[in-house]
Design a protein that fits this description.
alpha+beta, Alpha-Beta Plaits, six-stranded antiparallel beta sheet, five-stranded antiparallel beta sheet, 26% strand, disordered N terminus
Length: 475
């Protein structure tokens, strides 16, 4: 396998993560829709894209991206109009690699763009209001659209929906803040209508002067909890975020600038909720009076972003580091060992007898055994070591800071013993063991790929000489 070539290809999950960042950087709906279109074309390698918004029951398209430039459109479609009508009526995705079939593209779009042969249409749905728009992507480059392309664009539409909701919330917050400068009484009336926590605080945020009633429904605390206890807000910030947030508050206070931060707060139930906190200084002419701000819950967005990161770096079946994260950890281990003049070991592991079990008992049982194997490996090493799944029934381990072969043997003996224990999923007649190959930095190699190759070769030596054993590379 050409590892360097494989690394050169950009992972679809990485592209989706970049699209998420690009879309959430956009603060207004038109820029969000443009970022969605350009991201969609990159993700599925298509030529033409457009987004529409549902306005007064009609899907309105104002522009599309075609031949490297934005093209002005001015079309609105009803529920009776082709594939757009399909989206309005049913709110379900639609994929076609032959646009001569029904439902057709509305003739206005077909005439405007011309040469439309393939299509994926994806609904964009809000959290509470149902359908809010749709994404159209046409003409894949030198290929046909697949169900995988559709799934990817559904993930993108979910990101877009969250970004639109956030943009609406930010817009509402700004409007409220402008009104608050005129009258605190008007402020109280307005802020109690939005799904966010609004507040007034001293400039250094040492005291909360007003907090909206939503604090009860969102965090579980009463208004009086925050108003009567000056330390309440600071105390509820997650310990890992507290120092950073207080530093940002201090910077805002000393520079006279606005305050923007994302951090976790403990609710009364103990749940850790993510908030985006934005505040501005209210002034009377040039005299700073107080800080007024809005905090809205972004927990769902953060959880989705964490899911993307996990998908990009961890194996879905076993929860272990995947190949990409293993390579990154190995690069770090080499750099650290070089600086500190230490040694570390690479273990390349392959199950003995797994193919027979997988063929005879089925993939479901095979997956359960792989997950159990991963757990047993993790129980055999230190928390500072890295266990990764390379694919199939092949695993790798980075043993940091080893000083002798005895250090390695203690770990490999434990692994051999743990893996050889019976698996209840396999039954009494099926026995599993593992073959282990070891390479040592810098004794066997000082480069990443050479270390992996040496450990892989040593593993095959162990497998070819009886299996259920460890062989340390002598290269």
């Amino acid at each position: 396998m050409n590892i360097e070539c494989e690394l050169a290809q950009e992972d679809p999950i990485e592209l989706l993560s970049k699209a998420c960042n690009r879309i959430h950087e956009s603060l207004e709906i038109p820029s969000i829709m443009r970022a969605t279109v350009s991201s969609a074309l990159d993700l599925v390698d298509a030529k033409i894209g457009a987004t529409g918004l549902l306005i007064n029951g009609k899907m309105a398209f104002s522009e599309c991206f075609s031949d490297g430039q934005w093209v002005h459109l001015q079309h609105r479609f009803n529920a009776e109009d082709g594939v757009v009508g399909h989206i309005i009526k049913h709110g379900r995705p639609y994929l076609s690699n032959d646009l001569s079939q029904e439902p057709r593209i509305p003739p206005e779009i077909d005439a405007e763009l011309g040469g439309l042969h393939q299509l994926i249409a994806i609904p964009i749905c809000g959290r509470q209001d149902g359908l809010i728009g749709c994404l159209l992507v046409f003409n894949k480059n030198n290929d046909a659209f697949t169900n995988s392309d559709q799934t990817t664009l559904e993930h993108l539409a979910s990101i877009t929906s969250t970004a639109i909701d956030n943009a609406i919330q930010i817009s509402e917050s700004k409007t409220i803040e402008e009104d608050l400068q005129k009258s605190v009484a008007t402020y109280r009336t307005l802020v109690e209508q939005i799904p966010a926590i609004t507040y007034i605080a001293t400039l250094d945020r040492s005291r909360i002067l007003f907090v909206s009633p939503q604090v009860k429904s969102i965090l579980g605390y009463s208004q009086d909890d925050f108003l009567s206890k000056p330390e309440m807000w600071q105390k509820q910030i997650h310990p890992e975020d507290r120092k950073r947030v207080l530093s940002e508050v201090h910077h805002s206070y000393t520079t006279g600038g606005s305050f923007h931060s994302e951090y976790r707060i403990s609710s009364r139930s103990g749940a850790q909720l993510w908030f985006k906190d934005a505040a501005a200084i209210v002034r009377d002419n040039d005299h700073a009076l107080y800080l007024q701000g809005v905090m809205y819950d972004i927990t769902e967005r953060k959880q989705f972003e964490e899911t993307l990161v996990k998908m990009a770096h961890f194996d879905n079946l076993t929860g272990l580091a995947n190949r990409a994260l293993f390579h990154d950890r190995l690069n770090q281990a080499i750099a650290q060992a070089k600086r500190q003049k230490q040694k570390f070991a690479i273990l390349y592991l392959d199950l003995d007898g797994f193919k027979k079990i997988n063929d005879n008992l089925g993939h479901k049982v095979g997956d359960e055994i792989l997950a159990e194997t991963a757990h047993r490996m993790q129980q055999s090493v230190r928390e500072t070591d890295t266990v990764a799944r390379m694919g199939g029934d092949e695993f790798t381990i980075i043993l940091n800071n080893v000083t002798s072969h005895d250090d390695i043997s203690r770990v490999t003996e434990k692994i051999l013993k743990n893996i050889s224990k019976p698996y209840k999923q396999a039954g009494a007649k099926n026995h599993l063991s593992i073959s282990i190959g070891v390479s040592i930095y810098p004794d066997n190699a000082s480069q990443r790929d050479a270390l992996i190759t040496a450990a892989d070769n040593a593993m095959y030596h162990a497998k070819n000489h009886g299996r259920n054993q460890c062989y340390i590379s002598e290269e």
